[in-house]
Amino acid sequence: MKIIAFAIWSLAAATAGYALFYVSYQVEALEQELAILNRQILKEQESLHVLEAEWSYLTRPDRLQKLTHELLPELTPVTAEQFTSLDALPYRTNTKESPRTRDGMPIPPIATPEQKSRRASYKGGQ
Amino acid sequence: MMRRLLQSMENARSRRQEPVEFRTPAEHALHEEGLFKQAIETGRTRVLITGAVMALAFAVVGIRLIDVTAFNNPSEPRVTHAVSASTVKKERADIVDRNGTLVATALKTVGLSADPKKIMDIQEAASKLAAVLPDLSAADIARKLSSDSRFVWLHRKLTPYQQWEVNRLGIPGLDFRTQETRVYPQGNLMSHVLGFTSIDNNGLAGIEKKLDQTLRSSTQPLKLSVDVRLQHIMRQELQAAVTEFDAIGATGIIMDVNNGEILSMVSLPDFDPNDAGKATDDSRFNRATLGVYELGSTFKIFNTAVALDTGTAKLSSQFDATKPLRVGRFAIRDYHAKNRWLSVSEIFIYSSNIGSARIANELGTASQREFLAKLGFLTPSSIELPEVGQPLYPKVWRPVNTMTISYGHGLAVSPIQLVSGVSAMVNGGTFYQPTLVRSDTDRNGERIISESTSNAIRKLMRLNNIEGSGKASNAKGYLVGGKTGTAEKVGARGTYRKKDLISSYVAAFPMNAPRYVVYVNLDEPRGTKKTFGYATGGWVAAPAVSQVIKQMAPMLGIPPQDPESPEIRQALAIKLPNQGKTLASF
C-alpha cells in the first residue's frame, strides 16, 4: 500500500516537474521569437518612416508639376469654367430630334429611370 | 557519528567505576542498561537535527532552482524588455501640413567619430579615410586625430555605402554613431515657416525654434495650418513676379478669414532648410513676419472702417479733395487727383490721400490709435514664429501722424499683421490672431467692428476691383475685391526714395461671403514696358493675386458664382451719390 502511494506521489511529482520545465522552456522560446519579431517590426517601421519621407520628397508640388508638364501635356489645372451645377445640366427630352446644348452640341442619350434616381439621390446628398 | 556513540559508551563505563556507593550485581546490570539507552537516545536526536538542517538546505536550494528556472525573477532584466514593438522613438516629432503631407521629419543617419588615443598610425588612417570620404581632406583628418581629446567627430552624415567602405578599412579607434538628422522633404517650399535645427537637433528658427519644447516632448506629429499645394502656387507666382519686375524680394500670404489660419506664407528669397548653414542672411529674413513696412494705401481699408464704425462718416459723406492738403511744411497729394469733393466710397476707390487724411482728421488721434491697437498693429504679432517684427509708430502721435497713417505712411507693420487686420474687416468684424498651427476646436475671435461696417468694406473692396485700381486682380467667377498699396521706402537719411517702392495688393474672395484673404507684396519692383513703366501695386502685385486665386479656388473646390445674378448684385450694390447712379459692384 505504502509503495503504491509512494509510486503515485513520485509519478505526480515527476509529471509536475516535467510539465513545469516543459512550459518554462516553451515560454522562453516564444519570448525569444517575440523579441525577434519586435525587432523586425521596429526595423520595418524605420524603413516605413524613410519611405514616407521619400514619398513626400518625390511628391513635391514643383516636381509633380514638371512631370505633368512633360508627360501629360493635355492635363491642365482645373479652371473656374469647368465647374457647373447639376441644375445647369440639361435633361434629355423624348423627342425624335436629339437634344442639343445651348451651344448646339448634341447630347448623348442619358437618364434611364435608374440613372435618374441615382442622379436625384446624388443631388439630395449634396 | 559512530565514534561519538562509542565515546559516550566509554564515558558511561568510566563513570560506572567512579561512584563510591555499593550496588548488587542485579542493580548493577540494570543501571548499565539504562545508561546505554540514554546514550543512544542522545545520538538519535542529534542525527535528526542534523538531517533536518541538511534537508532544509537542500529544499531551499531546490526551491530556488525552480524559482530561477521556471518563474521569472523580477529583479533580472527580461530579454523582451530590450525590444518592444512600440513606434519608433524620435528625438523630435514630425511636422505635417494641413492635409498630412510630411514637411519635416527625423531620419536616422550614421556619423563617424574617432578616439585619437586608439589610432595607431595617424597619417595612414587619415590618407585611407580621405580616399573613401572625398569631402574630407587628409590633412584635416590628421589634424583632428592628433588632438588630445578622447572623442572627435570626423563626419556627421555618412551614406550607407560610405559607412560600408569605412568599415572595410578596419582602422581601430573609429566608431560609428547613429544619430537623428532633421530632414525637410519639401526643400525650399516652407523654409520660413519651418525654420531649421542645429546639427544637434535644437530648433534655431521658425516653428522649430518657437515650438521646440512641444516637438521634443510630443509623439504625435505637429499639424500646421499651411497647405503645401497653395504654398507652391503662391511661391511660383511670386517668383514669376520677382523675375518679371526685377524685385529684390516678395511676400505672399493666404489666410482663412474665418479662423485666422494661415494657408500659405512665402517670403522670397528663401533657402533650403536642409542646408541652412549655406543660406545668406537676406534669404533667411522672413519678410512676412519679421519685416515691418509702411504698407501704403491698403491702410485706407482700416481708415474707412473705423470712420464708418464710429459714425464719423457715412459712405455718402463728402470730403474736400479739391487741392493738396497742407499740414505745416507737409503737403498731402493725390496720385490720381480728382480735384473735387469726394464721397467716402470715392475716396476709397480712387485711393485719395487727401480725402483719407480729412477723414482721419475728423476721426481724431485717440480713436485711430485705439482702433489700430485693437487690430494689434502696435504690438508684435503673436504668430508661432520667433521672427516677429516690432511695429514702428510715432512716439508722440501728432495730428500730422494721424493724417499720414490714414493712408499707410508713418506706421510700419509686418505683412502678417496687415493680413489679419484685413481678414477682420471682411469676415463680419471678428479679429482672429494669425496662426500656423491647425487646431481641431473653433478658435475664438474678438469683435472689433460691426457686421454692417464689414459689409460696407466688402462692397468697397469689390467696387475697387471693378471701377478702381484693382482690375488686374480679378479672377472670373470668384468675385475678388481688394485694395492696392504702394509705399515709397525710407532711405538712409530718413527721406522717401521715390523710385524704390513696396507695392502690394490685398484681396479677399468671394466678396459676398469672404473665405480667404490673399496678399502679395513686392519689394522694389521695376516697371516694364507691359506696365508702361509703372511699378505700383495695381500693376505688379494685383496680377499675381489674380493668378493665385484662379489656381487656388478650383483646387479648394469653391464653386464660381455668376456676378450678374440678382442675389450677387443685391449683396454688393453700392450707391455713389455724386454721380446719381447706383453702381452694381460685380
Summarize the structure.
The complex is a heterodimer of chains A (126) and B (586). Chain A has 126 residues and is mostly helical. Chain A has helices at residues 2-58, 61-71, 113-125.
Chain-wise SSE layout:
The complex is a heterodimer of chains A (126) and B (586).
Chain A (H helix, E strand, L loop, with lengths): L1 H57 L2 H11 L41 H13 L1
Chain B lengths: L1 H16 L7 H46 L8 H4 L12 E2 L5 E13 L7 H11 L5 H8 L6 E7 L1 H10 L4 E10 L7 H4 L11 H5 L1 H6 L4 E2 L4 H18 L3 E8 L5 E7 L12 H4 L8 E2 L5 H11 L7 E4 L3 E3 L2 E3 L7 E4 H6 L3 H11 L1 H10 L24 H8 L5 E2 L1 H12 L3 E2 L14 E2 L3 H16 L14 E10 L5 E14 L6 E8 L13 H4 L1 H14 L10 H7 E4 L4 E4 L2
Summarize the structure in words:
The complex is a heterodimer of chains A (126) and B (586). Chain A has helices spanning 2-58, 61-71, 113-125. Helices cover 64% and strands 0% of the residues of chain A. Chain A is elongated. The termini of chain A are far apart. Chain A is mainly α and 126 residues long. Chain B is of the alpha+beta class. Chain B has two domains: 95-223, Penicillin-binding protein 2a (Domain 2), CATH 3.90.1310; 232-584, DD-peptidase/beta-lactamase superfamily (Beta-lactamase), CATH 3.40.710. In chain B, a hairpin with a 5-residue loop joins strand 6 and strand 7. In chain B, helix 4 (122-132) packs across helix 5 and helix 12 (300-310) packs parallel to helix 14 (353-363). The relative contact order of chain B is 0.09. Classes of the chains: A mainly alpha (126), B alpha+beta (586). Chains A and B meet through helix 1 and helix 2 of A and helix 2, helix 3, strand 2, helix 10 and helix 20 of B. Chain A: Keywords: Coiled coil. Chain A: Residues 94-103 have a biased composition (Basic and acidic residues). Chain A: Residues 27-54 form a coiled coil.
